[in-house]
Structure to design on (535 residues):
């Protein structure tokens, strides 16, 4: 190694020792401080995973629905801490963390479009539309996992009858609440908000199509679509739109969020169909949360007896 | 610094540090900490650590040169083999827990789902590198050929990034982050190669004539 003598430097150029030492100390302190901050936060989260404080309303006198499955329900913990609600972040654990302070007071759902009696419904009014039922449904996500959930609500057809759609109404368009200030994580989701969904009117009138206000005998937790959402058990989970603010009856097929984002993968119908693969998920099988191995996915998520007739004569490979 | 890098104990410490992610998974497994979908959690965690270790492995050469710490080379093989080990866990959970070792289904799945295809390709690229990582294989292949072969790690890392990018539904921030890291490292490598070739050519040419007077 070549050691050069610097001729152009004098003693005056030498950094004073205290300054030199201070800089070292400062850098050391900084790196130690930031490392401990990150580490301790990690450790804290690791040891005490965030729990959601729920101010839930208990429901009583619920009607047991004949449409309920007898399969084993998933735990409340699983259903509330592993789900998609992209407005609150794209990780499965994000909604539980980020939806805690979601403000759902003074909620209004606007029912409009081709109807004889448009309404702006408060939550109190929605809860009085029909007697509340408990429906235990299988819920199949497009990501090839599934859960069994005891939802609370009533058939959506009750609401449809209330507003009296005109003959022009062929489709129902749904829209979620979106407020970037309350949902700052939504900016990174990679899909456009507000989230929109839709059904054909005859699909919406199926007794299985469910307007949902609660689960596990309580009002809906924020992260699961409080205070009111749809549940459509024979379609992939993303069709079951959360935190509803608008229901519009119309003659045209409405745009739907995931179809806009990626039309090759997500169609308007999005019926659970083990024979139509998605480029990411084969869809032939699914993992029921709580099980290690995968189980076969059923056509229409096992609800074919009730809904297959809606699609008579339709090529479901084409209309996926 | 040199003494630290060349110490036998540093290697042991680095080895143990590399085991922390695996230890974390095992600890979580015994403490109900893998969440509602443990299989997915394990797959995501091991997949991310595979990418991280690949990036770390690729960092060794630039860091050796930029920081003038040639002894960092002592950790390259270990980091690369850890990348491969985490990849093996990742791949095994897919084979056993997702596909129940049904070979026909696995083959169909690899052929049909693009993100699985490219992930499998990455595994195939890393497999020979892991096998030929020993000193014996370096000797058998010869330094030059061994080095050529091991450049495949760049393609494996790219496969990993594409695999991740195609896997996510819409939030592409993490895949893009790893993609950017791999791209920077690859570009640095290309730039280094390009400029070195240029500079060695100009340096060597005047010496060449007197060095070989007899030819």
């Amino acid at each position: 190694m070549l050691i050069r003598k610097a001729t152009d430097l004098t003693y005056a150029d030498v950094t004073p020792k205290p300054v030199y030492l201070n800089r070292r100390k400062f850098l050391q302190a900084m790196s130690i401080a930031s490392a401990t901050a990150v580490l301790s936060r990690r450790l804290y989260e690791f040891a005490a995973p965030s729990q959601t404080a729920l101010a839930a309303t208990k429901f009583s006198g619920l009607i047991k629905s004949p449409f309920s499955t007898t399969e084993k329900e998933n735990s409340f913990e699983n259903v509330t801490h592993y789900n998609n609600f992209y407005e609150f972040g794209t990780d499965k654990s994000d909604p539980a963390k980020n939806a805690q302070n979601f403000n759902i007071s003074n909620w209004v759902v606007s029912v409009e479009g081709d109807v004889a009696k448009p309404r702006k419904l408060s939550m109190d009014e929605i809860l009085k539309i029909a007697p509340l039922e408990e429906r235990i449904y299988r819920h199949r996500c497009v990501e090839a996992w599934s859960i069994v959930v005891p939802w609370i609500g009533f058939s959506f057809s009750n609401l449809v009858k209330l507003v009296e759609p005109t003959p022009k109404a062929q489709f129902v368009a749904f829209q979620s609440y979106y407020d970037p200030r309350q949902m700052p994580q939504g900016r990174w989701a990679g899909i456009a908000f507000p989230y929109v969904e839709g059904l054909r009117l005859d699909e919406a009138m199926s007794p299985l199509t469910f307007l949902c206000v609660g689960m596990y005998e309580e009002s809906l937790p924020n992260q699961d679509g409080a205070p009111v959402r749809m549940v459509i058990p024979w379609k992939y989970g993303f069709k079951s739109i959360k935190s509803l603010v608008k229901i519009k009856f119309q003659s045209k097929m409405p745009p739907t969020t995931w179809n806009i984002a990626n039309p090759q993968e997500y169609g308007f119908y999005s019926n659970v169909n083990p024979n139509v693969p998605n480029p990411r998920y084969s869809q032939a099988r699914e993992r029921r949360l709580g099980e290690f191995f995968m189980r076969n996915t059923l056509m229409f998520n096992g609800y074919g007896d009730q809904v297959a007739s809606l699609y008579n004569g339709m090529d479901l490979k084409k209309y996926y | 610094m040199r003494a630290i890098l060349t110490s036998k104990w540093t290697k042991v410490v680095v080895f143990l540090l590399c085991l922390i992610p695996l230890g974390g998974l095992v600890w979580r497994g015994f403490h109900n900490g893998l969440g509602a979908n443990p299989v997915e959690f394990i797959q995501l965690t091991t997949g991310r650590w595979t990418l991280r270790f690949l990036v770390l492995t690729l960092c060794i050469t630039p860091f050796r040169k930029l920081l003038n710490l040639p002894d960092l080379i002592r950790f390259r093989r270990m980091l690369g083999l850890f990348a491969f080990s985490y990849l093996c866990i990742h791949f095994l959970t897919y084979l056993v827990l997702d596909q129940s070792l049904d070979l026909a289904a696995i083959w169909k799945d690899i052929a049909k789902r693009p993100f699985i295809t490219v992930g499998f390709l990455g595994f195939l690229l890393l497999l020979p590198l892991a096998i030929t990582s020993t000193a014996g294989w370096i000797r058998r292949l010869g330094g030059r050929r061994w080095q050529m072969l091991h450049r495949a790690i760049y393609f494996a890392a790219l496969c990993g990034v594409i695999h991740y990018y195609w896997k996510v539904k819409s939030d592409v921030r993490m895949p893009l982050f790893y993609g950017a890291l791999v791209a920077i490292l690859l570009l640095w490598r290309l730039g280094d190669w390009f400029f070195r070739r240029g500079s060695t050519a100009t340096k060597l040419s005047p010496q060449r004539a007197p060095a070989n007077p007899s030819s």
In short: The first helix of chain A runs from residue 17 to 47. Residues 124 and 188 of chain A are 34 Å apart (CA to CA). Chain A touches chain B at residues 46, 49, 74, 77-78, 81-82, 86, 90, 92-93, 143, 145, 188-191, 261-262, 277, 279-282, 287, 289-290, 292-294 (CB under 8 Å). Residues 49-54 of chain A have pLDDT under 50 and may be disordered.
